[in-house]
């Protein structure tokens, strides 16, 4: 069955628009300061190399000795603010109205009318999670150097390293952190693993580990990374993760969970309870890589079975939510309520996590926990389908008999987090800046 629907992708780079070449800057190469062979030899970008093996012992050792730069506060947010000063964003996200919706979960609503202006309709195939990279479509090799904040890689000598002005070594497959020019929050960036390899939007073990390491380096529970597969509202088929800083707990992080499996290597898998979208929670692991491999293998299983999904990396990389979804499929089959469609909200990873980015003033004014719940309930697989998908996942990660699946009902934990902060007067509207 071929399902095609008209989609309106958000512009994530200033070079995504047709004919956006800015020739006003006379520099070397083609004059655009681009990421192609004409301009790259002159490129100098900060390079942050993280310490690769991270377990409890290493973390303890890391305490001694100052890191060369504060990853989140100085490097990432510092460079991001620099790009804001330079006017590279399409609108001022810090001026967008935001409020916590009254209720048990504290859904966060943002009114973002600017994000979807200047629409460029594109045919986007929603029925295939894996599609080959298409050189002719927008991809991140087409952004300008000024949109790139820094290069991010594993250190080769076991120490954190920082170089403020490093050349770009294309042969060494650099990964970039770049701004999203249509940010939905403060510090909204894209992590583009091995950018010049032009990988399609598809999870692999190495790239997921890189994303998890970024959360570990940021070392702040309010800095999360997210991933949308094709068919689950990714708009660009070039491998990327998103990330931003929002100093509020996400509703999904507050939902109770029930442990369903323990794996060798210390990874624990739970099911989300009392949340509108059914999903799995992965935690623990003796090393970052243990956790990363289990989640990656689960994602790869979903990809191979053509099941769209979203991933949220929380709690400094210690907790990962995996949410298979079926909204686009229902949408294409005409099974989504017209009232929900009218809001034009695309339930991607942030919305599913409880940060609702709304395009219409009316929806913002009328935002309620009930409305958020109704939308997200449409995203979720049915209980029956969810259990089928879980069986596929457990089959895929159970190489040998290292999975202990827990069928008992007594493993309910009330909340996953100790870092959840109670929002002062959560009945109030919080307006950022
Ligand atoms: Zn150039």
UniProtKB/TrEMBL annotation:
Give GO terms: molecular function aspect only.
Answer: GDP-D-glucose phosphorylase activity; guanyl-nucleotide exchange factor activity; hydrolase activity; nucleotide binding
Asked if the Swiss-Prot or TrEMBL record annotates the protein with the keyword Cytoplasm, the reply is yes
Q: Which controlled-vocabulary keywords does the entry list?
A: Cytoplasm, Guanine-nucleotide releasing factor, Hydrolase, Nucleotide-binding, Nucleotidyltransferase, Transferase
Q: Does the keyword Lipid biosynthesis apply?
A: no
Where is it found, in Gene Ontology cellular component terms? cytoplasm
Could you tell me where this protein is found in the cell? Answer: Cytoplasm
Give TM segment ranges: none
* Gene Ontology biological-process annotations: glucose metabolic process
**Highest taxon above the source species:** Eukaryota
User: For the GDPGP1-like N-terminal domain, which residue ranges apply?
Assistant: 72-244
Instruction: Give the GDPGP1-like C-terminal domain ranges.
Output: 251-398
What family does this belong to? Belongs to the GDPGP1 family.
Protein name, per record: GDP-L-galactose phosphorylase
Q: Which species is listed as the source? A: Phaseolus vulgaris
């Amino acid at each position: 069955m071929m399902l095609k629907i008209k989609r309106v992708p958000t512009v994530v780079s200033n070079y995504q628009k047709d004919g956006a070449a800015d020739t006003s800057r006379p520099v070397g190469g083609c004059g655009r300061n681009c990421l192609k062979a004409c301009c790259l030899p002159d490129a100098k970008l900060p390079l942050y190399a993280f310490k690769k093996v991270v377990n409890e012992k290493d973390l303890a050792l890391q305490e001694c000795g100052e890191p060369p730069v504060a990853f989140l506060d100085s490097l990432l947010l510092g460079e991001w603010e620099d790009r804001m000063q330079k006017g590279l964003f399409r609108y001022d996200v810090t001026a967008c109205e935001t409020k916590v919706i009254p209720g048990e979960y504290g859904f966060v609503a943002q009114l973002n009318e600017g994000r979807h202006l200047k629409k460029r309709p594109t045919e986007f195939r929603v029925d295939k999670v894996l599609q080959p990279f298409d050189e002719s479509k927008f991809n991140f090799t087409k952004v300008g150097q000024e949109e790139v904040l820094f290069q991010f890689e594993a250190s080769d000598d076991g120490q954190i390293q920082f170089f403020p002005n490093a050349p770009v070594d294309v042969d060494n497959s650099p990964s970039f952190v770049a701004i999203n020019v249509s940010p939905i929050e403060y510090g909204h960036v894209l992590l583009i693993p091995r950018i010049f390899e032009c990988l399609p939007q598809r999870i692999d073990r190495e790239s997921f580990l890189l994303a998890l390491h970024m959360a570990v380096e940021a070392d702040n529970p309010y800095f999360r990374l997210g991933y949308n597969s094709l068919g689950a509202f990714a708009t660009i088929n070039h491998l990327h993760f998103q990330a931003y800083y929002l100093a509020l707990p996400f509703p999904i992080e507050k939902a109770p969970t029930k442990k369903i499996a323990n794996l060798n290597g210390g990874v624990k898998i739970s099911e989300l309870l009392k949340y509108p979208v059914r999903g799995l929670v992965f935690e623990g692991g003796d090393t970052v890589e243990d956790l990363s491999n289990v989640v990656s293998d689960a994602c790869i299983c979903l990809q191979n079975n053509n099941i769209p999904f979203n991933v949220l990396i929380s709690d400094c990389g210690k907790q990962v939510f995996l949410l298979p979804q079926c909204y686009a499929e229902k949408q294409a089959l005409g099974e989504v309520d017209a009232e929900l469609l009218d809001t034009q909200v695309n339930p991607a990873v942030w919305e599913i996590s409880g940060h609702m980015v709304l395009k219409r003033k009316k929806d913002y004014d009328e935002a309620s926990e009930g409305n958020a719940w109704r939308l997200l309930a449409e995203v979720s697989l049915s209980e029956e389908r969810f259990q089928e998908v879980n069986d596929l996942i457990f089959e895929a990660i159970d190489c040998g008999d290292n999975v202990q699946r827990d069928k008992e009902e007594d493993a309910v934990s009330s909340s996953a987090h100790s870092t959840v902060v109670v929002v002062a007067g959560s009945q109030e509207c919080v307006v950022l800046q």
